[in-house]
Amino acid sequence: MQAHDEAQTAPIVWNDEAELLAQNVSTFMAQHSSFEAVRKYMATPTGFDAQRYAQIAELGWLGAALPASYGGADLSVSALTGVVEAMGQRLYGSPFTATTLAAQVILLAGTEAQRSQLLPKLANGEAHAALALYEPHGAYDLEQIAAKAERTASGFVLHGDKAAVLDGQHADFVVIAARSGNDFVLLLAPKSALQGRIRSETLVDETRRSARISLEGLTLPIDAKLAGGDARAALEHAERVAWLLTAADAAGGAEGAMQLTLDYLRTRKQFGKPIGSYQALKHTMVEIMCLIEEGRSLLYRAATVFDQAGAEREISLRMAKAQLSETYAFAADRGIQFHGGMGFTYECHAQLFLRRAQHDLHAFGDALHHRRHLRESLFQI
Amino acid sequence: MEQPNEPTPAELDAFRNEVRAWIAKNAPPKPKWKLPDSFMEVGTDEQFAYLQAWQAKVYKAGYLGMTWPVEYGGGGKHSALQRVVTSEMARANVPFMVNVIGLMWAGPTILKLGTHEQKAEYIPKILSGEEIWCQGFSEPENGSDLANAQMTARREGDEYVLDGTKIWTSLGKYAAHMILLARTDKSGPSKYHGLSFFLAPMRIPNVTTVPIKKLTGEHGFTETHFEGARIQASRLLGREGDGWAVAINVLAFERGAEGGQAGGLAMVPLRVAQVIDVARKLTRDGKPAIDDPLVRERLLQFVIEERGLELSLQRTRIPALAGPRPFAIPMMGKLRVTEFRRRLCAFAVSLQGANANLYVGDPDAYSDGDWQRGYMNAFSATIGGGTSQIQMNIIGERVLGLGKG
Q1: A102 inside domain
Q2: A184-198, B280-294, B325-339: least confident range
Q3: Within this chain, do residues A357 and A241 fall inside the same structural domain, yes or no?
Q4: A146: closest CA among A157, A158, A154, A156?
Q5: Hey, which residues of B are catalytic here?
Q6: Is the confidence at residue B292, as pLDDT, over 70?
Q7: Residue A285 in contact with residue A265, Cβ under 8 Å?
Q8: Is the dihedral of CA B125, B126, B130, B136 positive or negative?
Q9: Structural domains in chain B plus CATH codes
Q10: pTM for this one?
Q11: Number of CB atoms found within 10 A of residue A77's CB
C-alpha cells in the first residue's frame, strides 16, 4: 500500500507555534471551563459564555487559521488540532467550530470583497457564523445535498431544509450549501432573512447547539452567492476541517472522560480496597489509555498531512475521525459503568462526556460512513 | 551516552542507498527448510548456524551496534543511522539478528551498569554473535511473580555456587552466557531483597539444559538446571543484593521502555499488507476472499491499528506530543504490538476456510502452514517477558496510578 509507505517517510511533524497555542488554550480551559461552568452555560439558550468567548476572540484564537490580511494569525487549520483537543477535554461549548467552518468556506469560495467584509468580524468575535451542510435525511455525503437554489431575475429562491447546523440559531449569518443545476452553490443568509425559519434541535449533547432551517421560498439577493471560488472544493475543505476538529474534540473528550473515571477508581473503595485495584476495571482503563494514545497518533498524523492534497490526507483524516470518535464513546460508556449507581445520575459528570461523545460520534460522518470510504480507497473495490 | 551529530537528511538518504545496495548484494539466500520467525523459535542446529552467520556478516559490515561505544566494538554513531539499517532490513525482509537477548537487553544493561572489564569481555562478542546470550529469570514455580525467584547463589571465596532451575530459556542450547537472577540472601525483609544479578557462563560443569517442546510441536527453549555450578564472583553485575534493581533495568530494555539497544531486526516483521495479500490470493466460496466486505472491514481495522501503533512509536521522539504521560507509549508497546500480532495471525488463519485446518507438513497447507504456526508462536511474545495481563497491571499501576490488586 502506497499510503503506508508515505506514513513511514514523514509520519508526524509538529511546530512550536501550534504547540504554544495548544498549551495556552489548555491552561485557559482548565481555568474557565470547570464542570460547574459547563453545567451553568449548557443550561442557557445559547449554550456558551459570551464574555469568555469575547476573551477568546481577543486572544486571537478565533482567527488563528485565517490570513493576517483578514485579522488572523496565518496558521494552518491543522494548528487548531491542539486548540479543539483542549476544548474537548473540558467539554467547552461555544460557536468556535461552527464559526471556523463558515470562515473556511468563505475564505475559499468568497470574493475578495466578501472575505474582507466578513472574515475580520469572525476573527475578532464581532460576528458568529454557521455552515448549513446537512439535511433532515441525515446523509453525510455531499452528493446527497438536495436543497435547491433556483436562479431568478433578482437573485435566488431556495427549496428544501437544512439540519444539524452547528450554532445556527445564534449565528449572525449562515452559509447555505445548495444545488444549482448540477453544481453546488454557497449562499450567505443574514440572520434577518432567516427569521421564523430556524428551529433549535434538542440534542443528546447539552453542551452544543444546532438548528434546523427551513429554506422553502427563502429569497436571497444575487450578491448572497459566494462567487470567488469553487463551491465544491470549499465544501470538501469544510468537511476535512470538520473531520479534523471533531477527531480533536474526541481525543480531548476521551482524555477528560478517562481522567474523571480514574479519579473515581483511585478514591472509591469497596470490599476495603480502591476499586481501581480490581483488574476488571484496571485492565479496561489501560485499554482505554492505549486507544487514546494510538488515536492521538492518528490525529497528529492527520494534522501533519492536512495541507497536502492527495489520498493520504483523506485516509488519515477519516481514520482519525472514525477511530477517535469510537474511542471517546467507549471511554465515556465505561465511565458511566465504572461510576456505578452514581454514574446513572444526571449529577455525575460522567454523563456530560457520554452525551458529548454521542455528538462527536454522529456528526460529520459516523464511523460506519468513514470506514466505508476507507475500504473503498484502501482496497479499490 | 553522548549522541554524535545528527546526520542531515541528505546524509541519511545517501546512507539508506548504501544500506539498500549492501542488503541487495549480501542478503542470505532463502534456505530449503523453514526459518523461524523469532529467536524464541530457533529449534534446529542448521537454523541457528544460518542465523549466526548472518549476524556476523551484518556486524562485520558495520550495521549492528552502530550507536554503541567504539572501544567495545560498537560504531559510535548516531541512532538515526541504526534506525535506517533496521527499517531497511524490515523492508527487505531479511532474517533477524539471532543474539536478541544480548543485543536488545543484556548488552544495554551491561553497558549501563557493568564494569569496564565486563563491557570489554562481553560486548564485542554479543555484537559479532560469537557468544549467544540467554535469560534466566522465570522458574518453574515463579513466572509472572519474577521477584519471587528461589534459585540460590551461595558465596564461597571468589566464587558463587548456583543451585536451582530456570525455565523457558530461549536459545538455551546455544548460549554461552545467561543473565541470571538468583537469591544470595533469604533473610531480607521482602522478596525484593537478597536477589543478585549474574552474567553466568552456560558451558561449565553442573549446568544442564533439557529441551522443551512447544505447542507447535517444535523445540525452541530449554529448562536449565544448575546443580552446584561454580562461577567466578566477577560474574556479578552490580552489587550483591541489588539484583532486583538490575532486573528492572533489563525489563525496561526488553519491553522497549528504554532505548539503547544494538538495533537490527529482532524478529520477522509482520505487516497487515501481507495478510491483505493473503486475502487477495485465497478464494472463499469461489471468490477472492477480499471481495467479501466483512473481510475488508476486518482488514481495515487491522490497518488502522497498525498505523496507530507505528505512529505512536514515532510520536515518542517528539516530546511536545508525548502528552501528560511520557512513559505511556514506551510502556504499552510490548502489550499492544504482541497482542496485535497474535490477532492478525489468527485472522490470516481464519481466511483459509476449511483448509485452515491443515498444518505444517501437509502438502496442501496454505503457505506450508506458516500462519497456523505463526499464530501459535505469537503467544511466546504475549506470555514471555511478562504476560499481557501483567503488562496491563504495570501500566494501570505505574502510568494510571491505580492501586495494586
Answers
A1: no
A2: B325-339
A3: yes
A4: A158
A5: 254
A6: yes
A7: yes
A8: positive
A9: 9-128 (1.10.540.10), 133-254 (2.40.110.10), 272-399 (1.20.140.10)
A10: 0.92
A11: 20
Same domain, A137 and A29: no
Reading across the β-sheet that carries A161-166, which strands appear in turn? Answer: A161-166, A210-214, A198-200
Residue B315 pLDDT level (bands cut at 50, 70, 90)? confident
The domain spanning residue A349 has which CATH number?
Answer: 1.20.140.10
Inspect the interface and report whether the beta carbons of B402 and A277 lie closer than 8 Å: yes
| N- to C-terminal Cα separation, chain B | 38
| C-alpha cell read off for B69 | 561505544
Q: What is the pLDDT of residue A5?
A: 41
> Are residues A92 and A24 part of one domain?
yes
Decide if A315 is inside a domain.
yes
Assigned domain for A169 exists: yes
Are residues A175 and A291 located together in one domain of the fold?
A: no
Distance, in Å, from the CA atom of B1 to the CA atom of B17, rounded to the nearest integer, reads: 27
Predicted confidence at residue B330, as pLDDT, reads: 87
Return mean pLDDT, chain B: 93
Q: In terms of domains, do A118 and A137 share one?
A: no
**Is the Cα dihedral A199, A201, A206, A207 positive or negative?**
negative
Q: How far is CA B384 from the centre of its chain?
A: 9
Q: How far apart are CA B149 and CA B194, in angstroms?
A: 10
pLDDT (tens digit, 9 = 90+) per residue, B167-180? 999 999 999 999 99
In the structure grid, which three cell numbers stand for residue A261, read together? Answer: 473515571
* Nearest-neighbour CA in chain A from B388: distance (Å): 10
Provide the pLDDT for residue A381: 62
Q: Give the total number of structural domains in chain A.
A: 3
Contact predicate B202/B134, CB 8 Å: yes
User: What number of residues does chain B have?
Assistant: 405
Query: Which residue range forms the structural domain that includes residue A92?
Result: 2-97+111-127
How buried is B53 (Cβ within 10 angstroms: 0-12 exposed, 13-18 middle, 19+ buried)? middle
- Model pLDDT, residue A315: 98
CATH code for the domain in which residue A8 is found: 1.10.540.10
Q: Can you give the pLDDT at residue A4?
A: 38
Residues of chain A where predicted confidence (pLDDT) is lower than 70: 1-10, 381
Contact A14 B401 (CB under 8 A): no
Residues of B with CB under 8 A from a CB of A: 87, 273, 276, 290-291, 293, 296-297, 299-300, 303-305, 307-312, 314-315, 318, 320-321, 323-325, 328-329, 332, 335-336, 389, 392-393, 395-397, 399-405
Question: Å from A177 to nearest chain B CA?
Answer: 32
pLDDT for the residue numbered B262: 86
The cell 457564523 sits on which residue? A129
Q: What confidence score (pLDDT) does residue B2 get?
A: 60
Distance of residue A26 Cα from the nearest chain B Cα, in angstroms: 12
* CATH label of the domain that carries residue A141: 2.40.110.10
- Residue A72 shares a structural domain with residue A187: no
Give the three-class secondary structure for B358.
coil
Residues of chain B with Cβ-Cβ distance to A265 below 8 Å are 402
Instruction: For A319, name the nearest residue in chain B, comparing CA atoms only.
Output: B304
- Rounded Cα distance between B235 and B125, Å, is 16
Contact state of A298 with B307 under an 8 Å Cβ cutoff: yes
Please indicate, yes or no, whether residues A43 and A55 belong to a single structural domain of this protein.
yes
pLDDT at position B260 over 90: no
pLDDT at A7 (0 to 100): 39
Nearest CA-CA distance, residue B257 and chain A, Å: 15
The answer to the question of residue A356 being in a domain is: yes
Q: Are B64 and B97 in contact (CB under 8 A)?
A: yes
Q: Looking at the structure, do residues A370 and A244 belong to the same domain, yes or no?
A: yes
- What 3 state SS string does A274-302 have? EHHHCHHHHHHHHHHHHHHHHHHHHHHHH
- Nearest-by-CA chain A residue for B306: A294
Residues of A in contact with B340 (CB under 8 A): none
Q: What is the mean pLDDT of residues B243-267?
A: 87
Per-residue pLDDT at B142: 86
